[in-house]
Specification:
Radius of gyration: 16 Å
Shape: elongated
Helix content: over 70%
Number of helices: 4
Length: 79
């Protein structure tokens, strides 16, 4: 599995976590088994990114909100 594919799994996990709030460690182990992630470095990459993102969620949300305020909100382009 490539880092790109692992990043996709991280994105899917975070989306699922936001909706369901599954136990993080249990769900990560399930993903590792389901996706047959074998390399230790890939397992650690997955676990560390997910853990850091969840731990820093409120900080990340505030940063995003500040950027939206600075940039005047989200604007739709005319198509």
């Amino acid at each position: 599995m490539t880092r790109r594919e692992i990043r996709e799994e991280i994105f899917k996990f975070l989306f699922e976590y936001e909706l369901v709030k599954n136990d993080v460690d249990t769900r990560l182990e399930e993903i590792i088994q389901e996706e047959k992630i074998r390399k230790e470095e890939h397992k650690e990459f997955l676990k560390s990114y997910v853990t850091k993102i969840i731990e820093n969620e409120s900080f990340l949300v505030e940063k995003i909100k500040n950027q939206i305020k600075i940039n005047g909100g989200i604007k739709m382009k005319d198509y």
